[in-house]
């Protein structure tokens, strides 16, 4: 392996570890905030003003970042029947076409979030007055991470379609 390959492999692992840790922390925060709201309301007749709002924002961030983690684990629904039965040169072409279409779609979603971010600079949340660009930023960040994982998956299918096919066969057997 070249030093560049080792570097990018370690960078990929670090990014995945960071995103996974963030999702776990967001889940823990969301759970604690909702539990505090329920306990406060029903046991002490006291409502924490912003706990449900921040829990909602944590959930939004968690879902967008979690989509990229799901892409990494191949948990999104996909129809790959055609890809698995065609010869290797055609696999590369099909994977390339899928990659171009996916990149176009995801980039369009990221670009579309720009207007929402602009609006969020002038809006604040109702309970705590948090600038709305913070929860809105979950869209380009989460979709950007999804795009990153999507590219990793499909560049691998283009470069080594035989490796992907054998790995997929092993997964379906186990």
UniProtKB/TrEMBL annotation:
Topology term for the membrane: Multi-pass membrane protein
Biological processes annotated in GO: C4-dicarboxylate transport
One Pfam family named in its UniProt record: DctQ
Transmembrane segments: 55-72, 93-113, 133-155
InterPro entries attached to this UniProt entry: DctQ, TRAP_DctQ
Alphabetically ordered keywords of this record: Cell inner membrane, Cell membrane, Membrane, Transmembrane, Transmembrane helix, Transport
GO cellular component, one term: plasma membrane
Gene Ontology MF terms: transmembrane transporter activity
Cell compartment(s), UniProt: Cell inner membrane
Family (UniProt): Belongs to the TRAP transporter small permease family.
Entry-linked PANTHER family: 2,3-DIKETO-L-GULONATE TRAP TRANSPORTER SMALL PERMEASE PROTEIN YIAM (PTHR35011)
Full protein name: TRAP transporter small permease protein
Organism of this sequence: Halomonas huangheensis
Upper taxonomic lineage: Bacteria, Pseudomonadati, Pseudomonadota, Gammaproteobacteria, Oceanospirillales
């Amino acid at each position: 392996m070249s030093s560049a390959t080792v570097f990018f492999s370690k960078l990929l692992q670090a990014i995945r570890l960071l995103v996974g840790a963030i999702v776990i922390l967001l889940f823990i925060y969301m759970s604690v905030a909702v539990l505090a709201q329920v306990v406060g309301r029903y046991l002490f007749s006291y409502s924490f003003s912003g706990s449900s709002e921040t829990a909602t924002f944590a959930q939004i961030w968690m879902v967008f970042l979690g989509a990229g983690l799901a892409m990494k684990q191949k948990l999104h629904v996909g129809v790959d029947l055609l890809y698995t039965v065609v010869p290797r040169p055609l696999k590369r072409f099909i994977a390339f076409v899928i990659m171009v279409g996916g990149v176009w779609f995801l980039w369009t979603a990221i670009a579309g979030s720009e207007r929402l971010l602009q609006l969020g600079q002038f809006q604040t949340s109702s309970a705590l007055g948090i600038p709305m660009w913070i929860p809105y930023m979950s869209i380009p960040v989460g979709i950007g991470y999804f795009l990153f994982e999507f590219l990793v998956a499909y560049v691998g299918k283009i470069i080594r379609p035989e490796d992907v096919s054998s790995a997929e066969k092993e997964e379906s057997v186990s």
